[in-house]
Design a protein that fits this description.
α5 packs across α6 and α5 packs across α12. The N and C termini lie close together (about 10 Å). A hairpin with a 2-residue loop joins β1 and β2. With about 400 residues, the chain is an alpha/beta fold. Strands 3, 4, 5, 6, 7, 14 and 15 form a seven-stranded mixed sheet that branches. The chain has a six-stranded parallel sheet with strand order 10-9-8-11-12-13, with helices on both faces. The protein contains 13 helices and 15 strands. It folds into two domains: about 230 residues, Quinone Oxidoreductase, Chain A, domain 1; about 160 residues, NAD(P)-binding Rossmann-like Domain (Rossmann fold), CATH 3.40.50.720.
């Protein structure tokens, strides 16, 4: 089969690789019909290369058709249309019973590398599709076919009819955004700030309005992202056109700040020369521009929700200020299956979240290297790129 394969920093190729096979009675094989490039895939492309290996198949946002199932898989059948959550969870361990599916005890990689990479010495969470040797080194979904471990629990059956893009984002974007908004705990009619208006930020804004937020303020500098967010009622700020985002947000909120803020950027943040220098010289492993602007723009007693991925230490973290301002902080990988029952009914005929206008680029799987390049460079107005095997 053909698959998107990692060969080195900023070097992905579409190669011939062996077809996946059933290895465990809880496995399934799906024929992938659509698979998306995620913002966190860019971390693999250019930032997390030390924990990748040449030949790794990447990607964690697939939808497709069931081709084969192991003997213990009963809730899906051959021919079913299914979305595959990006985290791999068993559904019955302690953490799965707590609906913390991203922390599944039975799929965690307990090897030496994940342990060594944990600054707190606690290892990493549940295995993820196509996402480094810290998270199980499981072959990913940017391929013609995908082996799905724990298929007795993970795959989500979706209706036939609507285009893939209606349901594809159940794999990651929609649950990640829903959890980010839930963690933000925006009061009814309150104001949410969203830093980063990529796919996650766009959906955070739409979900926040759907759940009762009164205002959403969005921060980015890509014209197409700002325009799309404005279409859904977001009050946008182009950070490249203002001297001080924090001061502008305070002016917009009677001097108090937003009730809650979501950092939907993570280590891909731009906008700070100092941050870039610190990251390049390894003094600080991640850029923290968006994170610090979020923290500085929240009202006292508000909430910070982090969905953007960070991998390293953040130097001079303003913990004392967060304490003084009584800011609550919540974060973490999305527990995908926890939110599916809330989201799936919204993906019917009305589509209030506007899922079908999120993808700006659709291209054959063979064009994946181009997709990664323009996504990383924010070229051609890209917000979300969907590959068609």
């Amino acid at each position: 089969m053909r698959a998107v394969v990692w060969h080195g920093r900023e070097d992905v190729r579409v190669d011939n690789v062996p077809d996946p096979i059933i290895q465990e009675p809880t496995d399934a094989i799906i024929r992938v019909t659509s698979t998306a490039i995620c913002g966190s895939d860019l971390h693999l492309y250019s930032k997390l290369y030390p924990v990748m290996r040449e030949g790794d198949i990447i990607g964690h946002e697939p939808i497709g058709i069931v081709e084969e199932v192991g003997r213990d898989v009963t809730h899906i059948s051959l021919g079913d249309r299914v979305v595959i959550p990006f985290n791999i969870s068993c559904g019955h361990c302690y953490f799965c019973n707590e609906e913390l599916y991203s922390q599944c005890e039975n799929t965690r990689d307990r090897g030496k590398l994940p342990q060594a990479a944990s600054l707190l010495g606690r290892g990493k969470g549940a295995s993820l599709f196509g996402y480094t040797h810290l998270y199980g080194a499981v072959p990913g979904g940017q391929a013609e076919y995908l082996r799905v471990p724990q298929a007795h629990f993970g795959p989500v059956k979706v209706p036939e009819g609507p285009p893939d893009e209606r349901f594809l984002y159940l794999s990651d974007v929609l649950p990640t955004s829903w959890q980010a908004v839930d963690y933000a705990d925006v009061p009814e009619g309150g104001t949410l700030g969203v830093w980063g208006l990529g796919a996650i930020g766009q959906m955070c804004a739409r979900i926040a309005y759907h759940l009762g937020a009164g205002r959403v303020i969005g921060v980015d500098n890509v014209p197409e992202r700002l325009a799309l967010a404005s279409k859904y009622g977001v009050e946008t700020i182009d950070f490249s056109a203002v001297d001080d985002v924090k001061m502008l947000v305070l002016e917009m909120t009677a001097g108090r700040g937003v009730d809650a803020a979501i950092d939907a950027v993570g280590m891909e943040a731009s906008g700070s020369l100092v941050g870039s220098i610190l990251q390049t010289t390894k003094v600080q492993l991640d850029k923290a521009t968006a994170l610090r602007e979020c923290m500085a723009s929240i009202r006292r007693g508000g909430t910070l929700s982090i969905s953007g991925v960070y991998a390293g230490q953040i130097q001079m973290f303003e913990l004392g200020d967060l304490f003084d301002m009584q800011i609550q902080v919540r974060m973490g990988q999305a527990n995908v299956r926890k939110w599916v029952d809330d989201i799936l009914p919204l993906l019917g005929d009305d589509d209030p979240l506007g899922t079908e206008d999120l993808a700006t680029h659709e291209m054959p799987l063979e064009d994946a290297p181009l997709g990664y390049e323009i996504f990383q460079k924010k070229q051609d107005g890209v917000i979300k790129c969907v590959l068609k095997p």
